[in-house]
């Protein structure tokens, strides 16, 4: 891997399924060696089998913040560089505000926000030495407008968008671009299950999406690849909704 200076190296957290898998798939299709990071070893192995030889997987719990520096150090030592980081891993908890415990709130913040900060901090150290890099954070419509019963998720994703801007201002002078994708309602197994069990919610989603349909995971993959490519070389600090117009729908 160290001998191939032309091929970029990407890290994608939560890359074994859903949007993370779609992003990894797009990267691999464009000759980017992609390291998938996640907690489920079997799911990671299956994803690597599907994606082929330009992938490898690391089973790792990003909630163990104190172990993240070693994770990044080991990746740098083995692969020589890190060109792209996609912070995609996340969890959600759907519950009325007044029923959410401090522990439940903390768990979502830890996975969706604190671990993103810690991983980005360590990867930034590698990218600063390279004088080049691309960081892509994944937000949500929950940070664009109010959605009930996802208070912790909303807080975390709002934090992600704020961090994206602050990181971009600090890192971009040294050649590291930081951007964010805010997916709309995308047709994944998880969203299909949630929306199919809640017809009113599904109708509301579709009625306020001007394009009148759910997006595809590949739509997010395409956006991530664009932001990671040289075509986006003068783009940093943005939050780009990929949502069929949902964020501006009426």
UniProtKB/TrEMBL annotation:
Alphabetized PROSITE patterns for the sequence: ADH_SHORT (PS00061)
Listed CDD domains: SDR_c
Coiled-coil regions listed: none
SUPFAM superfamilies for this protein: NAD(P)-binding Rossmann-fold domains
Entry EC number(s): 1.-.-.-
Domain of life of the source: Bacteria
Enzyme class: oxidoreductase
Family from the record: Belongs to the short-chain dehydrogenases/reductases (SDR) family.
PANTHER family: 3-OXOACYL-[ACYL-CARRIER-PROTEIN] REDUCTASE, SHORT-CHAIN DEHYDROGENASES/REDUCTASES FAMILY MEMBER
Protein name as annotated: SDR family oxidoreductase
Native organism: Pedobacter panaciterrae
Lineage: Bacteria, Pseudomonadati, Bacteroidota, Sphingobacteriia, Sphingobacteriales
